[in-house]
Design brief:
The complex is a heterodimer of chains A (280) and B (351).
Chain A (H helix, E strand, L loop, with lengths): L8 E12 L2 E12 L3 E5 L6 H8 L7 E6 L2 E2 L5 H5 L2 E4 L11 H6 L14 H13 L15 H15 L3 E5 L7 H18 L2 E5 L3 H7 L2 E6 L2 E6 L1 H4 L2 H8 L3 E5 L6 E5 L5 H11 L1
Helix pairs in contact in A: 4-5, 5-6
Chain B lengths: L1 H27 L7 H9 L6 H34 L11 H15 L5 H23 L8 H23 L3 H12 L7 H4 L3 H21 L3 H6 L4 H23 L5 H13 L3 H26 L7 H19 L7 H7 L9
Helix pairs in contact in B: 1-3, 1-13, 2-3, 3-9, 3-11, 3-12, 3-13, 4-5, 4-6, 4-7, 5-6, 5-11, 9-11, 12-13, 12-14, 13-14
Classes of the chains: A alpha/beta (280), B mainly alpha (351).
Chain lengths: 280, 351
């Protein structure tokens, strides 16, 4: 098993400002992404989680400041070289009609080919490995649009695995999946981190899942970092109140010891009924 | 996988055989009957003469033009559909056909052009202007070119040029009668003297097209993922778009605006090959010429000794074939409704 790299940083932001037109979204963020760890970006809707992720993958130009990959501005590096180091799985990629799982995964090899660089043994191995790791080997010839939601998400992750990057960014990889599939996808990413030492940074909505699966959490609010640290450091009752404007109780999961956020009882059908009865 | 590739190979071999036979047929059929023997003599012996040989020699440029136009339009169709990610895109949204038509009408009405050899250059210039305008408008505003902006710009400019064309045509009966022959689209005026100067255009268009194919495969996964995979959106779109413009400009200048081929051949090819743009392109490059030359031959055959122009026959012949293919089904036959139910919708709104 490859040993986990020491606490180094390949990808970081320096006083980065992001936004669309005149509308600022992230203002002056300094962030270092520790190598070989799993990170989660959390925060209320519209706080710029996806924007930051896109910028880290050079999909969005910075307005000022810089995003550095191995010490060089990511926008100045050849896009194909970046694609061999940093992979991104966007929130809603489009599925070409009737593409098979195998063909979809094979497209992850794009950055490893020249203009007419032929398909070779390395590519076959990478695709087979990606299919095996995601448990899709038996579905290789199935059309992606006939798969279930969880299988489809695994196919997209397999594409990213075939790209074979050291850093993998994922925008809400668990959205639209039921609880079992959510855990399945996160297990897969954790296994990838353990076996390959891949650095993972993902946008997650669910604080409890982020606490279970992330080494570190970045919380965004009002254009900057509201908190950065381990889940137990970041996820507190004060934090949930100030970042999400929600009164909650934060307890420890009896099995994992990670924080569990439970909204207070006033946010429940029983409490609201009792209140209505009291008023009447 | 293996089963599909055997089937694909068999289909490709039959398409090649069909294409060769249709080309041969195209040399035999016409207002004047000739025998296969005479065709062989005309092709192999440069010193051969006689009226039969003469009419065959007239049919050679016509067949050549059919091959070129079918190739160019089908390949341009593949590029357009890939760049706009719109299965209904075809070369008409390049702004090229309408620009060329407009230029032809202007030149007929105001400059008194009457010779088809002059039309070639007028159409080339008009089509070029239309295409550049569509690209320019389609890349205005924030974020540069997008599939939607290009499609809209093409549709808007197309209507504008058509209105202009109609406005000029309506009061001019004299122009209408000569324009309508150009507007139908056909191969009957084909001569090597007009085809040869445009050969470099066909070649340049095909080379550019081939260069854009790997990038188009990445583009099919969405803009974000394409960039994530190391593909340049602007470069891929520009190269593919330019290739389509060059191919269509060359073919429209020589044969007038021929529809249907660019829209339908890529779909037929996709039914055979699945979604890989490189394969779709290769098979379209075979099927486009096959459809166009067949349509031309059938147009000459059904109303002998006169012709029905190929622009009319392609759709009449092609539509039923297309419907039959879709019904038989292939790799791409799953309903789009089924896919829509799985399509992710974006819920997080960025301010």
């Amino acid at each position: 098993m490859p040993k986990r790299s020491a606490e180094t940083v390949r990808l970081k932001t320096e006083k980065v400002h992001l936004g669309y037109g005149d509308f600022p979204i992230i203002e002056g963020l300094d962030l270092q992404i520790p190598q070989g760890k799993i990170g989660a970006i959390v925060g209320p809707n519209g706080c710029g989680k996806s924007t930051l992720l896109k910028a880290l993958a050079r999909l969005l130009p910075v307005q000022s400041g810089s995003i550095l990959l191995d010490g060089q501005a990511i926008s100045s590096l050849p896009t194909r070289s970046v694609a061999k180091i940093v992979g991104i799985l966007p929130q809603s990629p489009s599925t070409p009609e009737s593409i098979s799982v195998e063909e979809l995964v094979a497209r992850g090899r794009h950055p490893h080919h020249g203009m007419f660089g032929g398909w070779d043994h390395t590519d076959d191995t990478a695709v087979e490995e990606a299919l095996r790791l995601t448990g899709l080997s038996d579905l290789a010839t199935r059309a992606v649009d006939t798969l279930s939601g969880g299988q489809r998400q695994r196919a997209w992750i397999a594409l990213s695995l075939a790209q074979h990057t050291d850093i993998l960014l994922l925008d809400e990889p668990t959205t639209y999946l039921d609880m079992t599939y959510q855990l399945e996808v996160l297990d897969l990413l954790a296994e990838l981190n353990i076996s390959r030492g891949t650095t993972i940074l993902m946008v997650l909505h669910d604080l409890n899942l982020a606490s279970r699966y992330a080494d570190w959490i970045l919380a965004l609010k009002d254009g900057g970092a509201a908190a950065v640290g381990s889940p137990s450091q970041v996820i507190t009752e004060d934090f949930v109140r100030s970042v999400f404007r929600l009164d909650s109780r934060v307890t420890r999961d009896p099995d994992t010891g990670t924080p569990v956020v439970t909204p207070l009882a006033q946010h429940s059908l029983a409490a609201l009924r009792a209140k209505a009865d009291g008023a009447a | 996988m293996g089963k599909h590739s055997t089937r694909t190979t068999a289909l490709i071999i039959s398409a090649v055989v069909l294409l060769l036979s249709v080309c041969l047929w195209s040399l035999v059929i016409g207002s004047r009957e000739v025998s296969l023997d005479e065709v062989l003599r005309a092709l192999t012996d440069p010193a051969a003469s006689g009226t039969a040989v003469e009419s065959i020699r007239l049919r050679i440029p016509r067949t050549t033009l059919g091959l070129l136009v079918g190739l160019a339009l089908a390949c341009a169709g593949v590029l357009m559909q890939a760049v706009t990610r719109n299965p209904l895109a075809d070369p008409t949204i390049l702004g090229l056909n309408s620009g060329a038509s407009c230029a032809i009408v202007i030149s007929m009405a105001f400059a008194g052009l009457t010779r088809p050899s002059q039309y070639v250059w007028v159409a080339l210039i008009g089509g070029g202007i239309g295409a550049v305008l569509v690209w320019w408008i389609g890349s205005m505003g924030r974020g540069g070119t997008s599939p939607l902006k290009l499609t809209l710009a093409g549709a808007v400019l197309g209507s504008m040029f058509s209105s202009l064309t109609s406005a000029i045509l309506l009061p001019r009966i004299d122009v209408i009668s000569s324009y309508r022959f150009w507007a139908v689209g056909g191969l009957s005026g084909a001569r090597f003297a007009t085809i040869l100067p445009l050969l470099p255009l066909f070649a340049a268009g095909m080379i550019l097209a081939v260069f854009s194919l790997p990038g188009l495969n990445a583009l099919a996964l969405g803009d974000d993922l394409a960039v994530g995979l190391g593909s340049s959106l602007r470069r891929t779109r520009f190269i593919a778009w330019s290739a389509a413009v060059i191919l269509c400009a060359a073919s429209t200048s020589l044969a007038g605006p021929i529809g249907f081929v660019g829209l339908v051949i890529p779909h037929v090819a996709r039914l055979i090959t699945g979604p890989d743009v490189r394969k779709v392109f290769a098979v379209s490059a075979l099927l486009g010429p096959l459809l166009l030359v067949s349509a031309d031959v059938i147009g000459r055959f059904i109303t002998r000794p006169s012709d029905v122009e190929v622009g009319i026959v392609t759709a009449i012949l092609g539509a039923p074939v297309f419907v039959a293919l879709v019904r038989v089904g292939g790799k791409g036959s799953r309903s789009s409704a089924e896919r829509r139910t799985h399509a992710h919708s974006v819920t997080e709104v960025q301010p």
